[in-house]
Design brief:
Helices cover 44% and strands 12% of the residues. By secondary structure, the chain is an alpha/beta fold. It folds into two domains: 393 residues, TIM Barrel; 284 residues, TIM Barrel (Alpha-Beta Barrel), CATH 3.20.20. Strands 1-12-11-10-9-8-6-2 form an eight-stranded parallel sheet. β11, α13 and β12 form a beta-alpha-beta unit. α19 packs antiparallel against α20 and α28 crosses α29. It starts with a helix and ends with a helix. 53% of the residues are buried.
Length: 772
């Protein structure tokens, strides 16, 4: 096909869409089901209506081929586990008894069985449930969900494309099941898994699918020759099937590298490539393999992970280059729109001028459609859209909101000495032990306590004007008193104030820093029914006044035990925001770090002896390609040290990380030079403790013994067993006892019971230690 005819054939599509609904209807229905207020039939009816509405919105916007199968009650990787029948043995009875309850048992656990491990989806803030596989795993096909959702779209009269997680990525995301040797490689199960995918593909073809998309984002990471050979074999075998739809293999989040020739040669009909992340590399690689003659290329030219408007003219230029490289070029967002909010039209409090700089899922869909229109009919057909786009881009570039000369001058004046503590850790540790007087195996929590209905109501009443600031602050004081009292009675050693005044660990700070914008309805799924509203980083960052000192000092006035000051670190402030795309991330991180440095100094001056600067996103933001990591880790660790480097030796700096694979960044964790780090470890059975020990990590650490993403209450015996495992890797004088993460999402009854068990476990194991 010639470039002209390739353009004439161009269509608009997306890979996925936000699941929650305009008013988070899915979250409310699922949580109502968990609490017994919503029936299973009502839950499924709500989900069916949301799927129908999403598909219709896309079709009405001009999307020619809508995705199906991207919708999920909890997580699409968990959906794949169900599809291929890889249900862990401990969950089998629950799944057999009731498919819905069994599904949620795998996601959340029950009092009797632990859930699947949860970790980050590549370098996003979305969490997936990790498949557990072993040599004895038997796969069986269950295409019910995929076929049902496809038939729903076809019944609406729409052209639909089922989207499945590809077999190679599924296996690469998996881990050895409990009891299976740690060196077992799930990818060795590929030959056993491919026939199951073949069966699902046959079912989808029979149900009416013309195309099926198989997502293989793992192929944008560094892959070994064996892994690339597995991908080649997988798509050679799937491509050779006769009873199947046409196959579109999709990648996103980075450059394909060595995987591109593998896919280009595979007997599949289409490939989807991200042309927003490492666009030049993917373009060069595509040209180097001679393009994709005879294949469909779906070009992801609209950024599906950030909220800034697309540069339409630039994207059209990219698309024009691609026309000569494939039989047919279609236009898409770079990845599923799951990672952005639904609609800017709901935002009434953002300056209208700034709102024109933003594109959420509906606006990105419109951009995809506009680009396809321009590709097919020429730029004259989208003259108005191009003019409006140019004006919005120019408005943002020239806005004084984006630049503050004082902030930039301060950042440029930073020296290496500013990012270093005044004394080495050994000397600081001795000073801190003398100052704090803590026992062996000190107990603490990560920061937040349950956000009660009363707290959320008070916050809503304040926004609506039903109560004044004084009434709201009295509610906060009461909550802090209750949290401090509970911790003292329970016997926790280092307390927290519970963060009742904070709506979110990033948004709370963003609302008090210059340069950030907060949304009212910009919800994005983090995991399951947990939705967050990432703030938007629009300009240079500074801190006009203290943000946390008042409430931390109040909490400290209620107790003689140390109360931690709680801050969110610079990398996490970036990772869980929609960041600027007009300057390097490292420059923005330095600005945030300097703002936090001011806050740390004020906390210390107010008498706070323990200050925690959370960096749960340090691993999450790690580039997917190894060659890009050193530069990232250099500015990321410098930003943390810059925020904490000015404190006295006897002020103890903590940090926290959770739900990620830490083995890749142990050296960076060391480079943070924090005095204490707490990490998620319960679901992974203290794996991180072993990783720290293998590295020779010299500081104090608290691998978590309480999985807070499950409603189950761990017994004191269970927590003690985890502590004993931790002691095999970390000596008692450097081991802390804490939950995996903050307790914001938990209820008070389970929180009380779990923390009481945690303290009991610490006392039990402390009593087993040799007398010094």
């Amino acid at each position: 096909m010639t470039p002209k005819s390739a353009a004439a054939a161009a269509r608009a599509t997306v890979y996925g869409y936000p699941r929650q609904g305009q008013n988070r209807e899915l979250k409310k229905a699922i949580e109502g089901y968990w609490k017994g207020r919503v029936t299973a039939d009502a839950l499924h009816a709500t989900a069916a209506e949301l799927r129908r509405s999403n598909r219709q919105q896309l079709a009405d916007a001009g999307i020619h081929e809508v995705p199906t199968g991207d919708f999920s009650y909890y997580d699409h990787v968990l959906d794949t586990t169900v599809m291929v029948g890889a249900v862990p043995e401990r969950h089998r009875a629950a799944v057999d008894a009731d498919a819905t309850d069994g599904y949620f048992a795998m996601a959340r656990g029950t009092q009797e069985v632990a859930p699947l491990e949860m970790t980050k989806w590549f370098d996003t803030n979305y969490h997936y449930l990790v498949p557990e596989l072993g040599p004895g795993t038997v796969f069986t096909a269950d295409s019910t969900k995929q076929v049902t959702e496809l038939k729903g779209a076809l019944a609406q009269g729409l052209t639909a494309r089922p989207v499945l997680l590809g077999p190679v990525t599924y296996l690469l995301l998996a881990k050895p099941a409990p009891g299976v040797p740690a060196d077992f490689e799930p990818l060795t199960l590929l030959d056993r898994l491919l026939p199951v995918y073949a069966e699902v593909l046959a079912d989808l073809r029979a149900a009416g699918a013309d195309w099926v998309q198989l997502d293989e984002p793992a192929l944008v990471q560094d892959r070994t020759p064996d892994e690339l050979n597995a991908a080649e074999r997988a798509y050679r075998e799937l491509g050779a099937l006769t009873d199947r739809s046409k196959l579109l293999v999709a990648s996103y989040f980075d450059r394909l590298g060595d995987a591109l020739p593998v896919l280009a040669k595979a007997p599949v009909e289409g490939i989807a490539v991200d042309f927003t992340e490492a666009a030049a590399d993917n373009l060069e690689a595509l040209a180097a393999v001679g393009g994709l003659p005879g294949k469909r290329l779906v070009a992801g030219v609209v950024n599906g992970r950030n909220v800034w408007i697309n540069d339409l003219q630039k994207s059209l230029s990219t698309l024009g280059t691609l026309l000569g490289l494939a039989d047919r070029v279609d236009v898409a967002a770079s990845c599923s729109l799951l990672h952005v909010p639904l609609d800017t039209a709901a935002e009434k409090d953002i300056d209208p001028q700034i709102l024109h700089w933003l594109a959420f899922a509906r606006q990105k869909t419109a951009e995809v459609v506009t680009l396809a229109e321009g590709l097919v009919r020429g730029t004259d057909s989208i003259t108005g859209e191009l003019a409006a786009n140019r004006a919005a881009l120019a408005s943002r570039a020239g806005s004084p909101i984006t630049r503050d000369p004082a902030v930039r001058a301060r950042a440029e004046a930073v020296t290496d000495a500013d990012a270093r503590r005044s004394q080495p850790y050994a000397e600081r540790s001795a000073a801190q032990r003398a100052h704090l007087g803590l026992p062996l195996l000190p107990t603490t929590t990560i920061g937040s306590f349950p956000q009660t209905t009363e707290l959320r109501t008070a916050r809503a009443d304040l926004r609506a004007g039903r109560i004044d600031t004084a009434g709201y602050e009295e509610r906060i004081r009461t909550e802090i008193q209750e949290v401090i009292s509970f911790q003292e009675k329970t016997g926790i050693d280092v307390l927290v104030h519970g963060e009742p005044e904070r709506n979110d660990m990033v948004q709370y700070f963003a609302e008090q820093l210059t340069g950030y914008l907060a949304t009212q309805h910009g919800w994005v799924q983090s995991y399951g029914t947990r939705y967050v509203r990432p703030p938007i980083l629009a300009g240079d960052i500074s801190r006009p006044e203290p943000m946390t000192v008042r409430w931390t000092s109040y909490a400290q006035s209620l107790s003689h035990r140390p109360v931690k000051g709680m801050l969110t670190g610079p990398v996490t402030m970036l990772a869980w925001s929609f960041v600027r795309d007009d300057q390097p991330l490292g420059d923005t991180a330095r600005q945030v770090a300097l703002a936090l440095r001011d806050e740390v100094g004020d906390l210390e001056a107010a008498g706070t002896s323990v200050i925690q600067v959370d960096e749960p996103a340090l691993r999450e933001t790690l580039p997917l390609r190894a060659t890009d990591r050193a530069a990232y880790l250099a500015w990321a660790t410098e930003a943390f040290r810059l925020s904490t480097g000015a404190v006295r030796p006897d002020t103890q700096i903590h940090t926290h990380m959770c739900y990620a694979e830490f083995g890749d960044i142990v050296r960076a964790i060391d480079d943070l030079d924090a005095d204490v780090i707490s990490l998620e470890a319960a679901r992974s059975h203290m794996q991180v403790a072993r990783e720290l020990a293998a590295h020779g990590y010299p500081r104090e650490a608290g691998p978590g013994v309480y999985d807070i993403h499950s409603p189950r209450v761990p017994s004191a015996v269970e927590a003690a067993d985890l502590l004993r495992t931790g002691l095999k890797a970390i000596p008692a004088e450097r081991l802390w006892v804490n939950p995996d993460c903050g307790l914001k999402t938990r209820g008070w009854p389970e929180t009380r019971a779990s923390l009481e068990n945690l303290v009991t476990a610490a006392r039990t194991v402390r009593g087993e230690l040799p007398a010094s």
